[in-house]
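User: We ran a pulldown and think these components assemble together. Before we commit to crystallization trials, I'd like a predicted model of the whole complex to look at. Sequences follow.
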Amino acid sequence: MNSFRARAQNSLRQYDTLIMFLVFALASGIITNGMWFDPENLVNVISRVSVVGVLVLAQTFVLLSGQIDMSLGNFLGLFCGIYAVLFLGGQSIPVAFAVALSVILCLGFVNGILASRTTIPSFVITLGTMMIALSMHLYIIGAARYVPQLRDLIYGVLEPFPKARELFPVSLWIGAFVLLYFVLKFTKFGKHLYAVGGSQRTAIITGISVKTVKFSVYVLSALLVGLASFIYIYKFSFISPSTGGTYLLDSIAAPIIGGVSLFGGRGVLWKALVGAIFLETLTNFLRLVGVNAFVFPAVQAAIIAVGVIISILTTPYYLRRRDM
Amino acid sequence: MSQTRNFLSAHSILVALIVLFLVMLILFRDKLLSRGVLLSFLHSCTILGMLTVGESIVLISGGIDLSNGTLVGMTSILAAWIALQSGVPSILVGSLVVCLIIGCVSSSLIIGAGFPPLIGTLVAMGIAEGITYTVTRGSPLPLSNETLVWLGQANAWGIPFYSFAWIGIVMAAYLILSRTTFGRHVYSVGGSEKFAYRCGVNVKRVKLAVYLTSALLAWLAGIVYVSYAASGAARAGGGGGFSYMLDSASASIIGGVSLSGGRGNVLDATLGTMFFALLYMTVIFLNISPVLEGAFRGILLLIVVLYAYLRETRLR
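Assistant: Here's a predicted model for the assembly, 640 residues in total across the polymer chains.
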């Protein structure tokens, strides 16, 4: 009897994010008179998540290592900006991508080196690089640009399978998730990540190279920004000066809803993704109901607040750090 | 010899300010000393200076306030919006109340729920942004109240009224931090929260006061902004509300305020403000695109925190 109760409690805790999401999905389906359950809407939601989803993978890795990355969203903006300008300036698609990726990697290196070699709080460092990326993006992009060529190219390849158009970005996203899931679960790097996030001091004593872990997390994050930008360009094809700015709150909110600890070392990758889908569903729901889009940042902020309260309540007191 | 070195390291920001001023005097002699340039220097010092006082008090107490830049934009928009219907008292009171409520939200999240200051004030920032965009949908709003516009231009002996207010605030904050029990408590909370608590300091009250002060000063800076520019802008200072925040944090840090709390003083942070305002003049003089100012800002922040890090590791 007792053990059954304990097991039930345990699995409830394990799947809390999923249950929360399913309840919310059901409720929003009922409120919108089944509009939400329209297959077209569902596919739309899932394929819209794919950009945020990739960024959330990156943010989760950074959070697990006990750091935070404020620059993800604006890195994506800068990547798309560089790509658009170079491509419209007459470069080929691979060249434009390579240049954009190398610029983002350079910024990621700056993040990683400063975060791993000094004790400067990571949010200050990434706030600095975020500002650099934002203003470089504004400078090079000038006006909004339309670059549908990449999409057209891939549409051409996917000609025989018209349904694959919407699923292509989703498959990239899920592919990245599966890869990173295995990295986290079965490699030494994954174990080290949890160790560094859990307690840096213990990790050092155990002989883990804390610097390498902290550095590589930011490099990985820059690479994933490249993937997310690829999906963004494929899916939206429309690069404006404000591209990327909104992803800052999204990428932090989703892992927190998914129970990834802000204090590092605790959290599961798939729950963070459920958090991302949850967030997109909520936005979709607000849109279907007809809420003013300008209120969204406030809603996201409120969600972060609720998520953090849960995260704090579930973190033992001695594991809470105040330097973040 | 060692006396000079001690003096230099204790007053490094003053020395840096003087050196920068001399360099700029040599490079841009005829531009720098014109009346218009000096006025705009004073104006940016006033807004940034008020924010820096708030931010440095928060930093000294061991926290950080990400929301102050966004609050400036929100206050300016709210003031211009309320001015469409009513007079000065309701403009001031209305925007102040909203600012303080947001300050209460962030401080209660930090104190009551135990949020890291970064996240607590980020949430407050999101709420302020939501309010701002609900009111204006992103476009700037001209200020129609003549009294406030007049106040923005009013000056005595060529110095704007608001700059006197700024100097008064700096003096008051300096005296409160260095001469009163409350000031000591702010330093002790920043140095070690646990020890402060064990010594009988009311840590929660100190933190509440600190974040509310920052919100209050952000409100004042917003009022100065809206009455000087005669229009409210959601992105006052540009860059999604982060610009003023980054500048105020960088100015405090370069003025010797420690990012980990418990160290620094408001006077040096104010010198840091003047250093930054002067440095931004070069961007204008060199005709660099204003959009690139953000990159300049980000690079400066990284240099400043790196400098502070090296300084603090040497201290230990």
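Strands of chain A lie at 145-146, 238-239. That may be worth checking against your pulldown data before setting up trials.

User: Thanks, that helps.
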